[in-house]
Design brief:
six-stranded mixed β-sheet; 1 helix; mainly beta; Thrombin, subunit H; six-stranded antiparallel β-barrel; single chain; elongated
Length: 172
């Protein structure tokens, strides 16, 4: 049985996957996948590894698990000190953060996030986000945030950060 490799739906209306061994990226047309309850296709990478590729249709890009420090504040609280938070995962379109419970933040609020990436240049981004999900986990609050607007200067930085610099890209 081949290991499973997930393919994420891209802006170009195709599924994109990256070989974990050689970092070669592949693009799959939606027509490649059978119309079954658990669609998958067998794919052999140029490096020789074989995978069962499974499409992930709802997530538009890869969400990278991280443990980064950041800060957030409500957009309406201009000039106030940011609340420290831990960024649990990040993608070019959103992030999940954990922080002390803040009662004033509710779903559909706009917050301003400061993110310090652990890349070579220690990129510092300030992005505006919509609160899409709010859950309590013990004394901590976990927020699901959507970066708005979806396209901006942050997009290229976060895309490179989350997926890395692939060795190549192949369309199938």
């Amino acid at each position: 049985m081949d290991p499973i490799l997930q393919a994420y739906f891209s802006n170009r209306r195709s599924f994109v996957s990256i070989c974990p061994s050689c970092k070669q990226s592949y693009e799959f047309s939606p027509d490649c996948f059978p119309r079954t309850p658990r669609p998958s296709v067998r794919h052999e990478c140029a490096c020789g590894r074989a995978f069962s590729v499974v499409p992930v249709g709802l997530r538009s890009c890869y969400r990278k698990p991280v443990n980064l420090m950041g800060g957030l504040r409500k957009q309406t609280d201009a000039g106030k000190i940011q609340v420290p938070c831990t960024i649990l995962d990040i993608s070019p379109r959103g992030l999940q953060v954990s922080t002390e419970a803040i009662k004033s933040v509710v779903v559909n609020d706009t917050v301003v996030m400061t993110i310090v990436l652990d890349d070579k240049t220690r990129s510092r981004l300030t992005v505006q986000c919509l609160v899409r999900r709010k859950m309590l986990e013990g004394p901590m609050m976990v927020l699901g945030l959507e970066i708005t607007p979806a396209v901006g200067a942050h997009t290229d930085i976060l895309t490179t950060y989350t997926v890395g610099e692939p060795n190549g890209h192949t369309t199938l």
